[in-house]
Write a structure and sequence with these properties.
single chain; mainly alpha; 2 helices
Length: 130
């Protein structure tokens, strides 16, 4: 038996041991995942879950009110309910969107603008085609 043959056999034995170790770890992790999933599904099926609630529950049921007469056709001037959207139409906004910058009177009185001033446009010479 030569030294090379002995090294080859040692490598084969070492590879088999590594493969067995890795397969054992893989199967163990897979089984642990299945067990955890089974426990989770069993707890869900048991129905003993508690729901988290961020605010205190209201003790009174909200009063059911009839929508204002203008709510079905759009926003009436004095109503506080949002307008209903119509299929294929534009989406109504209640209240109407306002610009990001305050009006001129507010700026004169010292109100800061909501956005920083827009940067000047950068332009480059046109690209010449060859």
């Amino acid at each position: 038996m030569t030294l090379r043959q002995d090294n080859d056999r040692t490598d084969i034995v070492r590879r088999r041991q590594d493969l067995r170790l890795q397969m054992g770890l893989g199967i163990g992790l897979f089984a642990a995942g299945l067990a955890l999933s089974g426990v989770s599904l069993a707890r869900i099926a048991a129905g003993d879950m508690q729901m988290a609630q961020a605010s205190s529950p209201s003790l009174q049921q909200p009063a059911q009110t009839q929508p204002p007469s203008g709510a079905t056709t759009g926003q009436s001037p004095g109503s506080s309910a949002p307008a209903e959207s119509k299929p294929g139409g534009t989406r109504p906004t209640t209240p109407a969107p306002e610009p990001a910058r305050p009006d001129a009177d507010a700026q004169k009185s010292g109100a800061p603008s909501a956005l920083p001033p827009a940067p000047a446009e950068k332009s480059a010479p046109p690209i010449n085609t060859k």
